[in-house]
Amino acid sequence: MRFLTVLVVCTCYCLLAIVDVHNDLTPFIFTENKGFLPMPESETNPVSVEGAELGRYLFYDPILSADSTISCSSCHRQEYAFSDGGKRFSNGVNGTTTARNAPALFNLAWNKRLFWDGEAGSIEEQVLFPVRDHAEMNLSWTDAERRLNRSEFYKKRFLEVFGIRYIDSLSIAKAIGQFERTLISANSKLDQVARLENKLNEQEIRGMVVMNYQDLGDCLHCHVTEAHLMGTNYKFSNNGIENITRLEDYPDKGLGGITGNPKEMGLFKIPSLRNVAVTGPYMHDGRFGTLGQVIGFYSDSLHPSPNIDPKMTKVHEGGAHLSPGDQEAVIKFLHCLTDSAFITNPAFGNPFK
Fold it and tell me: I want to staple 74 with a disulfide (CB 3.0 to 4.6 A). Which of 9, 70, 123, 170 is the partner?
């Protein structure tokens, strides 16, 4: 056993720690952030500095697409909090497009299920889908393995990180998963306020009040920003977005399409409001292009559709009917959730540059 002093950078924080190092790997030290829920740790894929760096290369490498033209980063761009930068649907190989809006990638470790419909049960399982999806990267995992095993660059690094001489799909998913687990967003203006390093102005405070009062915006049940700062309750919900009366009329079945449970038809993952000002367009199908349109929907356009979330208490009134001033205040508050340090942190950027 030997000890090393390791400097680990996570978002904008620096943490100096003495860590016990085995197999010459450096454990990645996650910073505890004020207002955050305890971070779940993976027992099957503990994060190392070297493993996360290997995953970063793979995340930005188009080697995992059929025609070697797109990478994970093509649809998940750092400057947009790893969403797809204003696109309603993402472009795959051969001119294909995805059926849903690309979700942002940050604070993923707290998710028990991923994708809009919850199809993936872990970060590592989620990695397996887009590579083989015909509308996305369209590469079989057999071909992906073959490509990486021809690369001396990757063979050396997988041997160092995982102790394997043959690179397989599971180790690829683990490497990318380790990188994605390090994508922690925890330095927005609201985080700074929680640490007593900043203050909200009068309009931003009004926006937070509107969101968190049940007789006003009533957003607190799903998009948590007060009990904790995660911006979501990590559950699935039907928010009254579809104007239909029968389950079979849902154009996208969401969670119910995966589980087959009629009570879950039309339910979608509740996204975090963190970085929401840079992750549009919004909803699972990207139907709203601006935050103003989103707030307008919740204010005046809710529909009492099947499986509507019981927490949508104002659906039979058509919405919360917020004043123009309160709508603008909510938008100003939502901008306080943008983490500029996260979307510019070079530790998360393209390593090939």
Answer: 70
Neighbouring-strand partners of residue 10: 13
- The pTM assigned to this predicted structure is 0.91
All structural domains of the chain, each given as residue ranges with its CATH number in brackets, are 40-184 (1.10.760.10), 189-340 (1.10.760.10)
Are 181 and 174 contacting, i.e. CB atoms less than 8 angstroms apart?
no
- Across 12-154, where does the E strand assignment appear? 13-21
Reported as a single tens digit per residue, the pLDDT across 287-330 is: 999 999 999 999 999 999 999 999 999 999 999 999 999 999 99
In terms of C-beta distances under 8 Å and separation of at least 24 residues, what long-range contacts does 215-221 make, across chains too?
Answer: 216/320, 216/322, 216/326, 217/298, 217/320, 217/322, 217/326, 217/330, 218/311, 218/313, 218/314, 218/320, 219/298, 221/311
Which residue stretches of the chain are H helix? 49-60, 72-75, 123-132, 141-149, 152-162, 169-181, 189-194, 202-212, 255-259, 291-300, 324-335, 340-344
| Cα 262 from Cα 306, distance rounded (Å) | 10
